[in-house]
Design goal:
The complex is a heterodimer of chains A (362) and B (351). Chain A is an alpha/beta fold and 362 residues long. Chain A is 38% helix and 19% strand. In chain A, the strands form 2 sheets. In chain A, strands 4-3-5-6-11-10 form a 6-stranded mixed beta sheet, with helices on both faces. Classes of the chains: A alpha/beta (362), B alpha+beta (351).
């Protein structure tokens, strides 16, 4: 299949692996930002092709993992309102809230539906004028344009029964939070290709300069990731810290202006709490004032919901690349995909679930 | 459905009055009898069924019998490549075939939601008959229930089958030995993605068709060239990954598979990429996995390749002395990873 086979090709992967081995002289720690990259690395067994000196740590770029517990609780509360259809992307349904997940909520009788696009949720709202429809608008910059478009479309259609539970987060502030932490040991970043396809990568130049760190915009297939790693190591070994683009077949420096425009019409930047990490200033989107009637948090009484994370879960340290999943006492024992303590064990993009499914050796 | 005494003089008149199933069709009275006679008996007609006894009495030449049952609740009822009727017959025939059995007889039980059109029901019954005929097996007994609207999703079918196992065959996970070859009969994930595409209204340039098919004749072809077939499984729900994990667990051995040897149609692969699914976990309804003695593997494989249902068969892996009770895969780029049992359903990813 075009654009897939060539990026999963064993000969190309071997050539890149040999090049990486040839240039690596020192131990380096590299973080991939995006959960899609984590999934691909673990699923392809890519780390076996790297020299021992290279440590790959997994970043906070899994939208399911970083959506705060209280947002899940709010989603569950909304889903239980009579005559309300709660719509969501599929993998949010298994994320545990304080007392249950959305799948259990559905089994108990709530009308919870999986949609593949937020615009499908708008269609449901059009077809069900007597019901309230809420869409769980989560994700990074990648899903923001479509989510913004759904709100925009709903307003244009004059729908009064559609709203979004917005929990949007942004990648660069999270990278900055990792880099500015005294515990940080990340020496190079693979930036998230799809986020950059929307936003471009101009904002990474100042970060790279400030923290003296190489940042390579990278794709998602094994060959993309190996090439991204090679480019980061080249910089590190040569003592450079630049922003480079491995994913040039998709990403332009200036991003996608149409996508950015729709985001800026509907959303504005706000502080956000990241599950396992805490509040990061200016790290997310909220619905703009002009669209407040489409904001589920304003439309329904959801204030005062607070949630307590499990004390045994070290998701925060895993999401910041400080620890690996197998260093957690709960990993694979009382935290499993069937009974997750924290979100990284839920999504297939979460580092804990990826390790549990693909890397257990015991 | 095989109750006594249907009133054939009245049925044509009364059944003409209804073109949909009503609760009265399940009441055990005249309408029930008309439904049996004009739909089920009309198509399934055979000596045992026509006796309209409470059960069928079967004679068998076999010492060992295989006995299997399965319920079919597929939505939508009709999909590219098949429908609930063909699925219900093929599924149970396959369960028998996976025991090394030749099918002897089937039963069929129908739970019908009131309001279903009689024409549509008849279409599925016709499809069941066609699938059963293909393996020369008869549906010899059955049952019908009608439930109120909203109490079922239009039509549920349960089929049960009895098959006879020839003396020389011995199928059991206990027979799995180190070095055994793992053969897969064809492309994976087609049924699951066909259903998914119809449910979600996704269209591809090439339509994905379900692979629903009876594997009985393929299994007979395999046994005609070798008896060194240790285990047969059809990787339905949970896909190839779950089946291989069950085999690794029950045989207490490791299974190593090679990603590049696993056949996936490109359209199915594309659909899996769109949903974020791994084809290893997607359902199949006309594929089998055979664990066979390695020295016989090529012979069995070449016989399979000469059968229409095995033309894409491949040796996908082997039983190894490491990775105890686990399935490990050599990936296309030369890495290795565990192929785990799935925890729940695969859910479409956010991005």
């Amino acid at each position: 299949m075009k654009y897939l086979d060539e990026f999963r090709n064993v000969e190309t992967a071997q050539i890149l692996s040999e090049k990486i081995h040839a240039i690596t002289k020192h131990p380096w720690t590299i973080m991939e930002i995006c959960g899609g990259q984590t999934h691909s690395i673990v699923k392809s067994g890519l780390e076996m092709l790297l020299p021992k000196e290279i440590s790959i740590v997994h970043g906070p770029g899994c939208p399911v993992c970083v959506t705060p517990l209280e947002m899940i609780d709010k989603a569950i509360l909304l889903a239980q309102i009579p005559n309300l259809i709660f719509t969501s992307f599929g993998d949010m349904l298994r994320v545990p809230g304080s007392s249950m997940d959305l799948l259990q909520c559905k089994a108990n009788g709530a009308d919870v539906r999986i949609v593949y696009s937020p615009l499908d949720a708008v269609k449901i709202a059009e077809k069900n004028p007597k019901k309230e429809i809420v869409f769980f608008a989560v994700g990074f910059e990648t899903t923001a344009p479509a989510n913004a478009m759904a709100v925009w479309q709903a307003k244009k259609l004059g729908l009064q029964n559609f709203s979004v539970l917005c929990s949007h987060v942004l990648v660069p502030p999270a990278m900055e939070a990792i880099l500015s932490s005294p515990e940080n040991h990340v020496q190079g970043f693979l930036a998230a290709g799809h986020v950059c396809s929307v936003m471009g990568f101009e904002e990474y130049f100042s970060m790279s300069k400030k923290y003296r760190i190489p940042i390579v915009v990278t794709g998602f297939e094994p060959v993309d990731i190996l090439q991204g790693i090679l480019m980061v190591i080249q910089q590190l070994e040569e003592g450079r810290c630049d922003v480079e683009n491995q994913y040039a077949r998709v990403v332009r420096k200036e991003g996608n202006s149409t996508a950015m425009e729709i985001i800026s019409r509907v959303f504005e930047i706000s502080s956000r709490t990241w599950r396992g990490i805490g509040e990061i200033s200016q790290s997310g989107y909220q619905v703009k004032k002009e669209f407040l009637s489409f904001d589920a948090e304003k439309k329904f009484p959801l204030e005062g919901i607070q949630a307590q994370e499990s004390k045994d879960c070290i998701a925060g340290e895993i999401l910041r690349g400080i620890k690996k999943p197998y260093e957690c006492k709960a990993f694979g024992t009382f935290c499993k995909p069937e009974h997750p303590l924290g979100a990284p064990m839920v999504s297939s993009e979460g580092a804990c679930a990826a390790y549990f499914h693909f890397k257990r050796t015991g | 459905m095989n109750k006594k005494d249907s009133n054939s003089n009245q049925c044509a008149l009364q059944s003409d009055q209804y073109d949909t199933i009503t609760l009265a069709h399940g009441g055990g009275g005249k309408l029930t009898h008309q439904l049996i006679e004009n739909v089920f008996q009309k198509h399934f007609s055979n000596q045992l069924l026509n006796m309209l006894h409470d059960g069928a009495i079967i004679q068998s030449q076999y010492e060992r019998l295989a006995f299997s049952t399965d319920s079919y609740v597929v939505h939508p009822l009709k999909f590219p490549g098949g429908d609930i009727g063909s699925l219900a017959v093929n599924g149970t025939l396959n369960d028998l075939a996976m025991c090394g059995a030749k099918p002897v007889a089937l039963s069929a039980s129908f739970i019908i939601e009131e309001g279903m059109s009689l024409d549509e029901l008849e279409e599925y019954v016709r499809s069941m008959k066609k699938s059963a005929d293909a393996d020369s097996v008869q549906i010899v007994t059955g049952d019908t229930k009608v439930v109120p609207r909203g109490k079922a999703d239009r039509l549920f079918i349960t089929t049960t089958g009895i098959g006879g196992i020839p003396k020389e065959r011995n199928i059991s996970p206990e027979n799995i030995a180190l070095g055994d070859a793992v053969i897969l009969s064809g492309t994976i994930g087609d049924h699951g993605m066909a259903i998914m595409s119809v449910r979600e209204g996704l269209e591809f340039e090439l339509e994905i068709s379900s692979d629903t098919a009876s594997l009985c004749s393929l299994v007979e072809t395999m046994f005609s060239v070798s008896q060194a077939i240790h285990v047969l499984r059809d990787p339905t729900r949970g896909g190839v990954a779950s089946t291989l994990n069950e085999l690794a667990e029950s045989s207490q051995k490791g299974i190593l598979i090679y990603e590049c040897n696993i056949p996936v149609q490109s359209v199915t692969r594309a659909a899996c990429e769109i949903f974020g699914f791994d084809p290893l976990y997607v359902a199949n309804e006309g594929k089998l996995i055979a664990v066979v003695k390695s020295s016989e593997a090529e012979k069995i494989l070449s016989a399979m390749k000469n059968h229409p249902l095995g033309k894409n068969a491949q040796i996908i892996g082997e039983v190894v002395d490491r990775h105890c009770k686990r399935v490990v895969m050599k990936t296309t780029i030369g890495g290795e990873r565990v192929v785990d049992m799935i925890s729940g359903e695969q859910l479409p990813r956010i991005c």
